[in-house]
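Bumping with the actual sequence this time:
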Amino acid sequence: MISFDEMRKLAHVTPSKIVLLVMDGLGGLPDDQSGKTELETARRPNLDQLATEGICGLAYTVSPGITPGSAPGHMALFGYDPVAYGLGRGIVEALGLDIEVNPGDVVARGNFCTVDDNGRISDRRAGRLPTETTRDLCALLNDNVRVAGTEISFFPGKEHRFVVRFRGEGLSEKVGDTDPQHEGMEPLEARPLDETADATAAVINDVITQTRQLLAGKHPANMVLLRGFSQHPDFPSLPDVFHLTPACIATYPMYRGVARVVGMDILPAGESLQDQIETLTEYWDSYDYFFLHYKKTDARGEDGDFAAKAQAVEEFDAVLPSILTLKPDVLLVTGDHSTPAALAMHSWHTVPVVLWAKYCRKDEVTEFTEPACLRGGLGQIHAAELMSLAMANALKLNKYGA
């Protein structure tokens, strides 16, 4: 990859517009009965038309064989090496909820979960708890959880998700997750990852013990899982490196948080995909780079619901004409990782990508599916390289060298 220092020299401002459409968890695996993936199963005339007119391939967001989290997956799509620019899940969730995070604060993403009588996790998401219930549970914890010398605050997110902020002297982000990310296991103890985090891990374990006691007898949310302990990073921004005026349209806080870290303006997204399209239309003249995030493909994959994930693809396909009506110069459609319903979790598999633009070199792909994209002209590409391709096709990059 070309360095950010060189990219700053090459990038320049033009009126052309780039739209990045992220179908979260897009990639899948074949169904045992049909032999087709969710994407192959879905009716997707508009995605197929993009594939016919554009250039396709498969992308990996971290490295072959590595299963990406959502934060590194999106950092790659925004043009960042996700290993060099690592983000904890806590900070992106916190920033996405507009939570104040001061220097020295440590934040973590939390799930309310269900544990059985033996203390083993039976549902990592407590049945995708209603947001209103999560709000009440956070209020309960805020009223009762106390640790001497450290301010503990719980902030509700969407459904079962929340953020916990630790504020005090000498805190460290070098603490391992308490979420094993598998059901049938006991929640983990917070473990210091180096000697500087011993005291912080002790505080976190004290908080978890108090929380377990306060939630005992509650149903279905009788325990919490924490991951992504992190502090506020200081990364180069998209406006600085790529000379873009970027905007984010995402309904979930976590994705707004990643976008905010790299310098995007956060636009109102509403609750539905149609709301997001209306926002894109309303703000079309104010920005030259739009990131629009679609969650349902990932959520249905994590639920293990093959048919519902295929239906989510169809819902997304149906809104593409509204986006094309705006006449973007470059349209990039892909995912941040694969979430096959067969696994009901993120996986290491590459994700389909199509780049649609006036100046792209078309290939012979006519379907937006995993097998078809494997034959595409982009080949198998690191997702971080898609940003420079989008910039080039938008005529936003000068020549490199003499």
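The tokens above came from a reply further down the thread. The two ends are 19 Å apart (CA to CA).
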